[in-house]
Design brief:
heterodimer, A: alpha+beta, Alpha-Beta Plaits, B: alpha+beta, eight-stranded mixed beta sheet, 5 helices, globular
């Protein structure tokens, strides 16, 4: 069966939970399983509320894609707020690492659901490795897609070496800790 | 008996690490018997590994129960050790394919191989360290891992058995120094216990249809 493919310019975001390994060591795998269940459920709901095109959960994080980059920061804030509002997550010293990149990706329907492919997906993932807990790493390309009020929140430009992509201009933005 | 490790620190060397898993070995042993089939399969595998590794710097050959942990060493060039490890893996797959044509179906050997390069602690006839763990994580990657990967190949293009996977480090060496093989990215994966994303590659044998594009 031919799988329909569609190239689209999308904001590709990553979120990774920092601190689950320590939490597992401290409180056990059942606590972490409960936390992840609540996290996935709520992140999926928030994705829908913020018009996310796709959300795919991977390990203790997710990849998501947005047509409109202006939706991303409010979405990140809403996810970050889960650390304060969601009973399974609250008080467990959980922080999130976020990254955002913008570029052309291939949207496909696979045997396991919707997915996005392309070099820009890898770049967004590698940017996530650069983020500190509670921080968003945004590529300059993505920053240019954001409204002025959101751009003003970002830190100064710095060059990061990203595997297979070389030097990339990035900005850091700290999310308010709830 | 108490085991203590109060002696001198182990020797640290850079070696190519190969993890070989015998596909469905437990099932085969349970169905056809360990003494009748299982132990012969493992012994044949061990003997074939010895043969393909003999002139390629095979330094450690350690049973993992349903497979083997191997390391290859080259005193002149660690990168050459990685190339020899890949060559040995394909030689092993060729010999196994030949053997499989001559034995009954239940005695057939099918393998999953993963190759990585890194510093390891030499502990007796064994190896320790995070690079060894990473090689095991690579070997555990299967079709079922792909939905959790970024930029994955379609699951149906991931072979079930008799293939060689390698880490980014080994793929980099092969692309620079070994024209015989091509690599196909399987996708970016998170490997348990290791931070960040890691691109995993399948090494294609010299004559392979998948070398033409991403089929």
């Amino acid at each position: 069966m031919e799988i329909p493919k569609l190239k689209q310019h999308l904001a590709v975001v990553f979120c990774d939970i920092a601190g689950t390994s320590q939490l597992m060591a401290r409180e056990g795998d059942l606590v972490v399983a409960d936390l992840l269940r609540a996290f996935f459920e709520n992140a999926g709901r928030l994705g829908t509320e913020h018009h996310c095109q796709l959300i795919k959960f991977i390990g203790d994080g997710f990849i998501a894609a947005f047509e409109n980059a202006s939706e991303v920061l409010p979405f990140f804030s809403a996810v970050q707020n889960l650390a304060d509002t969601e009973p399974s997550i609250r008080g467990r010293q959980i922080r999130f690492r976020f990254s955002l990149h913008f570029g052309e990706v291939l949207c496909i329907e696979t045997s396991y659901g919707k997915d996005i492919l392309g070099d820009h997906v890898n770049i967004a993932a590698r940017l996530n490795d650069l983020a500190e807990p509670g921080q968003i790493v945004i590529s300059h390309v993505a920053l240019e897609q954001m409204p002025a009020a959101q751009r003003a929140l970002a830190g100064p430009s710095e060059t990061a070496h990203v595997k297979a992509a070389g030097g990339i201009q990035i900005h850091r933005l700290a999310l308010a800790v709830p | 008996m108490a085991f203590t490790d109060t002696g001198s620190m182990p020797e640290i060397v850079t070696e190519a690490i190969v993890v070989i898993d015998l596909v469905e070995s437990t099932l085969t042993s349970n169905l056809f018997g360990w003494y009748a089939v299982g132990r012969h399969a493992l012994r044949d595998l061990r003997s074939l590994i010895g043969a393909v590794g003999a002139n390629r710097g095979l330094r450690c050959l350690k049973s993992t129960g349903d497979g083997y942990l191997l390391t290859f060493h080259d005193p002149q060039s660690a990168e050459m050790a990685a190339i020899r490890a890949v060559a040995a893996s394909f030689d092993l797959l060729d010999r196994i394919a030949m053997r499989n044509r001559e034995v009954s179906e239940e005695r057939a050997l099918n393998l999953r191989c993963a190759v990585h390069l890194g510093e390891v602690d030499v502990v007796s006839d064994d190896r320790e360290g995070p690079h060894v763990s990473l090689a095991f994580r690579l070997q555990e990657i299967s079709r079922a891992s792909l939905p959790s990967a970024l930029n994955p190949i379609p699951p149906e293009q991931f072979p079930l058995q008799n293939y060689v996977l390698c880490s980014e480090e080994v793929a980099g060496i092969l692309s620079r120094r070994a024209a015989a093989w091509d690599m196909v990215s399987v996708g970016l994966l998170k490997l348990k216990g290791f931070p960040g994303w890691r691109e995993v590659f399948r090494v294609l044998p010299e004559e392979h249809p998948a070398k033409i594009g991403r089929v």
